[in-house]
Design goal:
Strand content: 35-45%
Oligomer: single chain
Helix content: 10-25%
Number of strands: 4
Radius of gyration: 16 Å
Largest sheet: 2 strands, antiparallel
Number of helices: 2
Structural class: alpha+beta
Shape: extended
Order of helices and strands: HHEEEE
Strand order of the largest sheet: 1-2
Length: 75
């Protein structure tokens, strides 16, 4: 099943916001170049139990990360 308006490849390639300029990425995580040429990315993630609305009037207990449920953004 394909969700109209959701391109999974865009989500897979941009989940860590690597498509943003460095100054914008710095608001989300810290990048440190490593001697072998790779990049170390450090994130701060806060997990919180919350009740979320999954459909109009339907509520569900969920873990949220930084206030959001891990999923592609709604179209």
């Amino acid at each position: 099943m394909r969700i109209v308006g959701l391109d999974p490849m865009i989500y897979l390639r941009s989940w860590n916001l690597s498509h943003l300029p460095p100054d914008e990425r710095a608001k989300v995580y810290r990048e440190t170049p490593r001697p072998d040429g790779t990049m170390l990315r450090e994130y701060e993630i806060f997990a919180v139990d919350r009740e979320i609305e999954v459909a109009p009037g339907v509520r569900f207990p969920a873990w949220t990360y930084n206030g959001e449920v891990p999923a592609p953004p709604s179209a």
